[in-house]
Description:
The chain is of the alpha/beta class. The chain folds into 2 domains: 4-71 and 97-179 and 204-208, 3-Layer(aba) Sandwich (Rossmann fold), CATH 3.40.50; 212-300, Helicase, Ruva Protein, domain 3 (Orthogonal Bundle). Helices cover 43% and strands 16% of the residues.
Amino acid sequence: MDHLAPLQRLRENLSKTLVGKDSAVRLVLVALLAGGHALLEDVPGVGKTLLAKSLAKSIGGKFQRIQCTPDLLPTDITGTNIWNPQSASFEFLPGPVFANVLLADEINRATPRTQSALLEVMEEKQVTVDGNSRFVPQPFFTIATQNPIEYQGTFPLPEAQMDRFMLSLSLGYPTPEEELQMLQGLSSRISVEELDPCLSLEELHQLSQQVSQITVEPALQQYMVDLVRSTRADNDVTLGVSPRGAVALQRACQAYSFLEGRAYSSPDDVKFIAPYVLTHRMIPAGGRKGEAVIARLLETVPIP
């Protein structure tokens, strides 16, 4: 298919700065192509910031980073109006959300009030400051990170915020071979600043439009609905997946099929992508692991 060439260029370009992150890169591209956002839950030093910067450079987009801390204010994210004495009027000073790729680093260190400032822009692609709404650049893609180990001084993301992320994933540690390759290539590997764009924002927009044309048969849609509804009726789940989760599952499935070079989605695509789309959208009961619940439901819900 004609879209595979630019996508392959993009993946090869990212591999110039990233070592051994092929699976994570593929999932991040799924969220990007489907118009969603990605939450990376991982320990420090595994390449989350490098991935976000490299992606922005590869698509020729603007990159901004927010280092989330407890004293961060909502206006530090969205922007604010400042008084200009020369013009005797207020002027809008854009915040870091006015970017194509936004990295919200350690998002769970920001207060709930500041976290909620991201809700509107992630869903509506706009911010409202002093009653005036302003659209952010397109595409707008948020990569948020949080450390799953360190909880002191953090504010867990509420369900409404978690539901805004299409995918939740972990980069994980590299294999011994990949870590050795990383050390051996230190002198020859290029930096993010040296990375050249390999895809334009317009080309990315066109690819995203093609994703929505991937065929999803009614029987497969019924399978997705059955899978999502099963989380709401399961005894091991306190809060099941929302209807937004069902929409995200179909869009992510289409994007994954698109990346794999198919014009249609299959049950195998659903089974692969479902854990990344559904697990973070539900609250397991009794300290159970969401991953285990989704794995069990994927085994028990009938496949069309």
